[in-house]
Each structure stands twice: as structure tokens, then as C-alpha cells.
Design a protein that fits this description.
By secondary structure, the chain is α/β, with parallel strands linked by helices. It folds into three domains: 8-126, no CATH class; 134-453, LCP protein (Aminopeptidase, 3-Layer(aba) Sandwich), CATH 3.40.630; 478-567, Alpha-Beta Plaits, CATH 3.30.70.2390. Helix content is 22%, strand content 20%. The chain contains twelve helices and 27 strands. Strand 10 (238-242) and strand 11 form a beta hairpin. The chain is elongated, with a radius of gyration of 29 Å.
């Protein structure tokens, strides 16, 4: 059982469920044995084609249960063929316990029968493997786990059974028009085959690795923001559902971020709410995986290239790599993303850099032609990704996951940027860190405003600045700025705070507190008349208002009619710019996912 109690079936081979469809001329996956026609003897002698290879043994992929022996297959391991007037062979069933595949034909259940006459129907020509691969992956390549869950679902609906779900009390659509925020969580639970040597003994599965992936509204760029596990933060109250009942787990103040999962029976919804509270971003979905994800995904793509500036010899993670580039997979890949004592400062922050390097390299490998045109690799990748995943109910099916993957696949890898939440050493506890507010606030603001951290996109933004529509509006003097300030979503007392600042710091004596606004606003808004454009220009410059915050009416205002400034949820405080920066704040660690020259130091 993994961190969320997902079981593994022990006697299923996906190849056993393929049957030939004469209408299409292709083999198709039949999940329910009742849907398939009565089996007949297969021709002898010719090996049956096989469409996939899941891991053998008790940790094999889970399949739907059928009547009788609990596998939905006959127990003989014999081949079978359809009787729709066609004699083509189909993949023979494999007896996984016996470890062999029968070459002889036979009816299901051990019966025998005669041959079938040749078909008069001419089957449609089969598509080439390359064309199928391109079709299957039309929606793949979202972001690591998402990438592995692409268009293969169209033909491999059996993968539905691999996915585990957690109801976090929020069910958002798989695809939406605006920006998308997905929380990627890696747990340190030691459950699962081969994981006893990793993580903390007895761990309930904390948020060991957490990445907030923000995908822009136009799908031109994405930011993957790593959150340090040892950062001290506040965890809000968290409603959790278990056995049909909802229980609210009380929040905690000044605790490690990683305890937002597992501790006190917190589920991924608690990590979800903690990140929302910290960043001000609204999360749409989460994906959670244990150690097996790294091992199985790296195996599925035949290894991931990594780089070390110096030899790595870590006895704790058992990682031994020479200086320069190496290809890692399986246990060695997991050791690479887990090691920290032989790189950088030996802290979790150094390990985050390794993880970002590994994920960037894996994305490049998934997007490579070697993967896209290999049917076996695509199948193994889809199997590994879905078996590793636990997701929210909003994307808790193969169809929803592929819709999400198709949507996110539009992001070019050169515009994916990895960054880390800026932190400072905790003076009260050297083993933990605290949020660096001065750098984190503009970074979170930048992501909330959907601004790219990609240097490629920064050039585009600068090139597009200064259009012909821009007009230089003269600014009014401070004593002419007349404005009513109301609070429409800012902190309590925000309106009065702003009026005090305007009058005392800017000499805008005609500013007035208008109390609470009738409605809440997500973004601050300044309403002004055409003949107040000079006043609006002055106030916008003082407060750092973006152009989107300025709303001009159609008619001029009277001489003593004030402008209306409504403070929204984006208001950070008097004197703090509301307009988000368009450039990554200085001192924020970041790296491009397409950078092939990143090496662990």
C-alpha cells in the first residue's frame, strides 16, 4: 500500500485484454470480459503480438476484476481469437504465476473447438506505429507527471484503475480558460515496494517535495515554484473527508511546512490550503506521488541525464556519480533527487536545485523524438505516471487527465522556469528557515498577475511596451487630487490607512475615507471621469496602479466630484505598489527548464 492506501493487483497483464476489431483492423482493449464475444481457438505456432509490458510479479498494474477467478481472464494462459469472421491472432494470455505463455490455442475455460472460416471482410489498413504514437501523445507533455498521462488514455482506458483520488472538498473543472495552478506533492512515506530505505522511519507521509506549477492564461509560459519543506509557516484549519464524514483539523501557527500533509491526519487538501494562504494564489488541482514515481518514470524513459560539477559520493543516499554528465534511472534516479549531503550546503535548498535539474531533464526526455515515436515507451510512461498518482476528484479520471494534459502541452519548454520561494535562516532554529518577505511578496505578486519569469518572455514584454495608443497624460498637483477611498477586499482599516498615507506622505488633502465598498473586488480599481485624467495619472503613479485598474467613465465630472478608489484583495498596504513586477525579483533562485548546462555544485 502506498501513502494513500492504494493497493496493487498481483496477477494482471494488460496484454491479456487486447482483442481484434475487424471494423477498424486494429486490436482494442476490452476492460470487461462480458463485452468481448465468445473466444475461439487461436492458430497455433505463431507468437501472439503484445501491446505493453507492465511489471511482473505482485506489484504489477491493477486491472478490473471479472467473475470466477477474480482476474476477468481464463486461467489457462491460452490464446484466443474473435469469431467476427476473422482468423487473425490476438495477444495470448499470460499466466503470470506460472511465468509462461502458452503457444497452443484453446477456448476460455479450457474448452476446445474447431477453426473458423476465413473472413470475406477486408480489414482496414493499420496505422503505422509512428502515426499511432503521434496520435496517442497529442495531449501529453504537460509537466512531468502530467506529461506521462497524455493521449495514451484514449486507447488505454485500463489506466483509469491506476489512479487514486482524494476528495479535498473542492472539485474544479479539468480545463479552464484562465491561468492554471497545480500543486505537485512528493511524500516521504516509506510504504511501497523498495521504499523502506528512504524517508523517515514511521513517517505518515509528509510534504517532502512541493512544487506549485503556475501555467499562464495564454499557455505561453509556466512557473514551477519549489516550496522548502523546512520553512516555518502557518497551517489553516482544514476540513478532511474520511469514511463519508467530514472532520475539521485545527490549524497551527509557526510550524514546518511539510507537516501540512500527514501530520494530525491532514490530507493533500491541507497542503492545498496552506499554499493558497501563503501565496495568495487560487489552486485548481493537486497531484501527489511517492518515491515510486521517480523510479518508475525514469525507467519508463530509459533514464534521465543529470550533471554534477564534482563527483558525488553520498553514503546516506547511496549515490555515487562521477563529475560531468550521467544517465540515472530507477533507484539511482531516486538517490539523485534525495541526496543533499554531498552537494551545495548540504541543506534541503541544495536538494531542491537537484530536483529542478532532474525534472527539467525529464521533461526534455519526454518531449524527445525517441519517446514520442516509441509505442512501448509511451505505454510504460502512462502506466508509471498513473500508478504513481493520487489526484483530486476534479481530475480523477483518465479522460479528465488527458484533457488537462492537452491543455498544458501548449507550453514551450523554453518558457518553463523553476524558482524557489525565497527564505532566510531561522534565528530561533538553525534546522529551519523562514519566509523572506521582501523578496517573496513581489514574487507571489508577479505570479498572481500572470507575469512570466522566463527571460524569453521578458524580452517579448519589453518589445511590446510603448504602443501607439499610449498617451502622456500630464499629472495634477497633489492639492488637486480629490478621491474617495473605500475598502473592497483589503485588510481591515485599509481605507483609513491609505487616506492617512495620502494626506501625510503625499499632501493629498482632498482624500476621504468612504468606508466599506458595497462589493468585494479581487483587484483594486480607480474610477475617474475624462476631465479627471490628470488626477488619475498622479494617483496611479503614487500607488503603482496597473493600467487594468483604471476605469474611465464616459461623462465629465463636476468640479468637486471625487474620483473613486476601491481597494481590492490585491492591496498590500499604503505605499506598496499594487502593480506587479514584470521582472524576477533580485535574489530569487531560478533556472530555465530547457537549460542543458545546469550542474549540481
Amino acid at each position: 500500500m502506498d501513502a494513500q492506501g492504494r493497493g496493487r493487483a498481483d496477477d494482471f497483464d494488460p496484454a491479456d485484454q487486447w482483442v481484434f476489431d475487424p471494423k477498424t483492423g486494429n486490436y482494442e482493449l476490452r476492460l470487461d470480459p462480458a463485452d468481448a464475444p465468445a473466444p475461439q481457438p487461436a492458430d497455433r505456432g505463431t507468437p501472439a503480438p503484445r501491446r505493453g509490458s507492465g511489471p511482473a510479479g505482485p506489484e504489477g498494474p491493477r486491472g478490473p476484476r471479472g467473475p470466477g477467478n477474480g482476474t476477468g481472464q481464463n486461467g489457462s494462459g491460452r490464446g484466443r481469437s474473435r469469431t467476427d469472421g476473422d482468423t487473425r491472432e490476438v495477444p495470448a494470455q499470460r499466466d503470470r504465476r506460472a511465468g509462461n505463455r502458452s503457444a497452443s490455442g484453446g477456448a476460455a475455460g479450457g474448452g476446445t473447438g474447431g477453426g473458423t472460416p476465413p473472413s470475406r471482410r477486408k480489414p482496414k489498413p493499420k496505422k503505422s506505429a509512428k502515426k499511432k504514437a503521434l496520435y496517442w501523445t497529442s495531449g501529453a507533455l504537460g509537466f512531468v507527471l502530467v506529461a506521462g498521462c497524455g493521449g495514451a488514455f484514449y486507447l488505454y482506458q485500463q489506466l483509469n484503475g491506476n489512479i487514486s483520488k482524494v476528495d479535498v472538498g473542492k472539485e474544479n473543472p479539468a480545463v479552464k480558460d484562465g491561468p492554471v495552478n497545480i500543486l505537485i506533492i512528493g511524500t516521504d512515506a516509506r510504504s511501497g515496494k523498495g521504499n523502506q530505505g528512504y524517508g523517515d522511519a514511521g513517517s505518515v507521509g509528509h510534504a517532502d517535495t512541493t512544487i506549485l506549477m503556475h501555467v499562464s492564461k495564454d499557455r505561453s509560459n509556466a512557473t514551477a515554484l519549489s516550496i522548502p519543506r523546512d520553512m516555518i509557516t502557518d497551517i489553516p484549519d482544514c476540513p478532511t473527508k474520511k469514511n463519508g464524514t467530514t472532520k475539521t483539523i485545527p490549524g497551527e501557527r509557526n510550524v514546518r511546512f511539510n507537516t501540512s500533509l500527514g501530520q494530525e491526519e491532514r490530507d493533500p487538501g491541507c497542503t492545498w490550503r496552506t499554499v493558497e494562504k501563503m501565496t495568495g494564489l487560487s489552486i485548481d488541482h493537486f497531484m501527489m506521488a511517492d518515491f515510486n514515481a521517480v523510479k518508475e518514470l525514469s525507467e519508463a524513459v530509459d533514464g534521465v541525464e543529470v550533471c554534477a560539477a564534482k563527483p558525488i559520493d553520498d553514503p546516506k543516499s547511496h549515490l555515487h556519480l562521477p563529475a560531468g554528465k550521467s544517465v540515472v534511472k530507477g533507484e539511482q534516479a531516486l538517490a539523485f533527487v534525495r541526496t543533499r549531503h554531498s552537494v551545495g550546503t548540504g541543506s534541503d535548498l541544495s536538494r531542491i536545485k537537484l530536483q529542478q535539474q532532474f525534472i527539467g531533464s525529464m521533461i526534455r526526455k519526454m518531449k524527445s523524438g525517441d519517446t514520442l515515436t516509441s509505442v512501448p515507451k509511451l505505454y510504460d510512461l502512462a502506466q508509471a505516471a498513473t500508478k504513481a498518482l493520487t489526484v483530486d476528484t476534479g481530475i480523477g479520471s483518465a479522460g479528465k487527465l488527458v484533457d488537462l494534459a492537452k491543455d498544458l502541452s501548449r507550453v514551450d519548454i523554453k518558457n518553463i522556469t523553476f524558482a524557489t520561494v525565497p527564505v532566510l535562516d531561522n534565528p530561533k532554529d538553525r534546522a529551519t528557515v523562514v519566509l523572506d518577505e521582501a523578496k517573496a511578496a513581489p514574487l507571489f505578486q508577479m505570479i498572481r498577475a500572470d507575469h512570466s519569469l522566463s527571460k524569453t518572455d521578458e524580452k517579448k514584454e519589453k518589445k511590446g511596451e510603448g504602443t501607439s495608443d499610449d498617451k502622456q497624460v500630464p499629472k495634477a498637483p497633489a492639492d488637486k487630487v480629490r478621491v474617495d477611498v473605500s475598502n473592497g477586499g483589503g485588510p481591515i482599516g485599509a481605507a483609513q490607512e491609505t487616506v492617512d498615507w495620502l494626506q501625510n506622505s503625499k499632501a493629498a488633502k482632498l482624500s476621504t475615507n468612504a468606508g466599506n465598498a458595497p462589493t468585494k473586488l479581487a483587484a483594486t480599481r480607480l474610477e475617474y471621469a475624462p476631465n479627471q485624467a490628470d488626477q488619475a495619472a498622479t494617483l496611479a503613479a503614487w500607488m503603482g496602479l496597473p493600467k487594468s485598474a483604471l476605469k474611465k467613465t464616459t461623462a465629465d465630472a463636476g468640479p468637486k466630484v471625487p474620483m473613486k478608489l476601491i481597494l481590492g484583495k490585491d492591496f498590500q498596504g499604503a505605499g506598496k505598489s499594487i502593480e506587479a513586477p514584470t521582472k524576477t525579483p533580485d535574489g530569487v533562485q531560478n533556472v530555465n527548464a530547457d537549460d542543458k548546462n545546469v550542474c549540481a555544485k
